[in-house]
Amino acid sequence: MTTYEVWAPKADAVRVTVDGTEHDLYAGDNGWWHSDLAATPGQRYGFSLRTGDTWSSLLPDPRSTSQPDGVHGLSEVTDHSFAWTDQDWTGRILPGQLIYELHVGTFSERGDFAGVVDKLGYLRELGVTSIELMPVQPFAGDRNWGYDGVFWHAVHAGYGGEVGLKELVDAAHRHRIAVILDVVYNHFGPEGNDTGMFGPYTAGGNTGWGEVINFSGPGSDEVRAYVLDAARRWFEEFHIDGLRLDAVHAMYDPGAIHVLEQLTYLTKEIEATTGIPRTLIAESDQNDPRIVSSQQAGGYGLDGQWIDDYHHALHTLVSGENHGYFADFGGVDTLAHVLKEVFFHAETFSTFRGRMHGRRLDTTLVPASSFVAYTTTHDQVGNRASGDRPSMNLSPEQQVLKAAMVLLAPFTPMLFMGEEFGAKTPFAFFVSHSDPELLRLTAEGRQREFARAGWNNAEITDPTSVEAFENSRLQWAFDDEQQRIFEAYQTLIRLRKQLQLARPYLEHLQVEYGENWLAFGYDDVTVVANFSDESIEVPFTGELRYCFDASKVSEHATQLAPWDFAVLV
Fold this sequence. Notes:
This protein is an alpha/beta fold. It has 14 helices and 28 strands. The protein folds into three domains: 57 residues, Immunoglobulin-like, CATH 2.60.40.10; 396 residues, Alpha-Beta Barrel (TIM Barrel); 59 residues, Sandwich (Immunoglobulin-like), CATH 2.60.40. It is 26% helix and 20% strand. Strands 9-10-11-14-15-16-19-20 form an eight-stranded parallel barrel, surrounded by five helices. Strands 2, 3, 6, 7 and 8 form a five-stranded antiparallel beta sheet that branches. A hairpin with a 4-residue loop joins β26 and β27. It is elongated, with a radius of gyration of 25 Å. The mean pLDDT is 95.
């Protein structure tokens, strides 16, 4: 930003106020308004819009790169220079990665970017190759998951702002760890969003979280540019290695070239010009192969996507929970199917949705590494009534069994912060809007949602309370049980690499199962697992490389302890 300008096609006149002094802008092409006034770092500014005879109040810039006083404050011109030290960083492609999802505000004692920097050595020793930050765009208040962001080009000041994020990325690269940003391009947060006064950023309709973003109606070229320019800023200026795109099924775009394809084009361009790979990972509940299919094959060409079906199959099998969207999952056969086919719902009936769902994936065309697998995520923990983690409900054996099914499978594994040591703190949903009515509606909405799912009202955490946030902070002092779980995770991560278990195509994966057991692997290595409370014998043998509990191998079979597994070479 060298001079003050703004896209405001709805306005009849526009003024910019810089450090208390007003200046008129002049109309340009395509709804843009310009000035010849130089933008100097440190200046605070906002725009006033005239519609008819009425002037608006002073509004922050939709393309603001800094909101030091929050989403309702003035924008700040930032100095984008930074003394980078990551010149030797060559990046990471998605195959071979171990992703670690974290929430900046609750991951460390400090609750900011510097607190994450303090833990990078720990993450490197664990075996993490990429950290995925839950959204860090500005939101109202100081407690939020981040999915209520409203300025898609800026960084939340409470975490350390633009400089803090750059310092984190620079430090992560020194530790040989990539940084992935979780970004939300499917809706604006409910507080602090004034974009509708400037132009048609939304198109009516509702995603369930907010109005549909205008990717295809009149004025949508500039809205698409708003998204693409934000992505370019993260990649080029912040040296970000990848983007996790939230709920892309809610990015409604019926045009011939989907905005996801444009993001792929942009990513490839930046890879070519910098020589550093960049990664795009989608969250989608559509079970649509187009997300990760090549553009030559009619797909969007993204590098990866989360696979909830694998989580659901594993969670339901181990926990026994079968409510809501878990209803169609549960048996060992279901887990085996997803292990081979990725999507459980693939042109099949979903009882939860009451309709046919998904599309069959050709696993010979898409590598297994394109699918991100996990035992849990922020969604799967936080969207429970009390935010209770699996580690608060499962035995150490069950926790490590689930970890083995993720870390030893051919998919790209992802951990959610704290699971690697069986964290006993919850991760609840929390907000701190400044609007009391929004707080009331949020709390009541959660109560209605969980009541429909059959939760007891007494179990529901109040998302607006300070306690919801404070209780969600990780506690970093391990007891003996947690240390044992942590060491198991370390071993599994090491075995994944030593035994080269991240093999490219699922057609080479051998899967067998019985009523309570499952085996998967290749000619040279097999993982056998017991999903029951009883010891069982399975017809597989070999050198026992690792088990968590007391499993034993004989000449003709393997004896598996309850909820245990064995890695056989």
